[in-house]
Amino acid sequence: MGKRLDGKTIVITGASSGxxxxxxxxxxxTSPKNLKLVLTARRIDKVKELAEDxxxxxxxxxxxxxxxxxxxxxxxxxxxxxxxxxxFQDIDVLVNNAGMVKGVDKAGxxxxxxxxxxxxxxxxxxxxxxxxxxxxxxKRGESGQGDIINIGSIxxxxxxxGGSIYCASKAAVRSFTDAMRKELIATRIRIIVIDPGxxxxxxxxxxxxxxxxxxDAVYRGVTALTGDDxxxxxxxxxxxxxxxxxxxxxxxxxxxx
Length: 257
Ligand code: NDP
Prior knowledge:
By secondary structure, the protein is α/β, with parallel strands linked by helices. The chain has 9 helices and 7 strands, in the order H-E-H-E-H-E-H-E-H-E-H-E-H-H-H-E. It has one domain: 3-Layer(aba) Sandwich (Rossmann fold). A 7-stranded parallel sheet has the order 3-2-1-4-5-6-7, with helices on both faces. It starts with a helix and ends in a 6-residue tail after the last strand.
């Protein structure tokens, strides 16, 4: 699998923590020669630390380009693609991982600002990134070439009380991906949706506005997945032979109903 990824340019959103960070490390470990990683998030200090960690672990074979990027800002996405250094411009794989959940209010009470931040990040941000990178991928080969891997959630399939907006945002990721797959059928561009179940990351901390006690309580007594579990799934999908598309994956902890 490593050989199929050799020389590729991979863009990951939300690489500063959790699944995104694990995914960057997993790509680097799987293909430590000539890989090019473009790692993005708002917390650029954490992305730069990750770049150092990758270098320590696999050496200089993997070239890393850290970029500060807020996916909820359309202008930042435009300038991100326009300003990529030449050696990182030929994007092979986009991992649309950046995402968040805010609040536990019922649909009737949820604050407008929370609705907006979840949709701007999880849906509009993912769409804008996809469109920007698709333009690059469409110019490759005869009919376009590349992989777009979207991180949805089990919440998009199994909505739960107190999560209406987040669940709706992740259902949108699934529908967007499925429609695009049909549009891209005659090309060599694969589009994949991976829906994780419960993964122990900073996700819960963000949901509870930084309240660590509430965030930790979510994982108490359960064996959640780790970021590495989803990272391995992402890299597996990207490493399939060209004629194979893993369109859709649901990965959740054994205990999760
Ligand atoms: P984390 O909170 O650890 O990671 C979220 C990442 O998204 C961070 O790197 C954060 O970076 C980034 N991010 C958030 N908002 C923005 C933004 N506006 N612009 C750019 N980057 C942003 O959580 P996870 O790793 O768990 O989450 C990754 C994905 O997995 C998300 O899409 C989430 O919805 C999904 N998921 C998570 C599950 C879980 O149980 N943890 C279950 C199912 C799906 P920064 O703050 O530096 O910008």
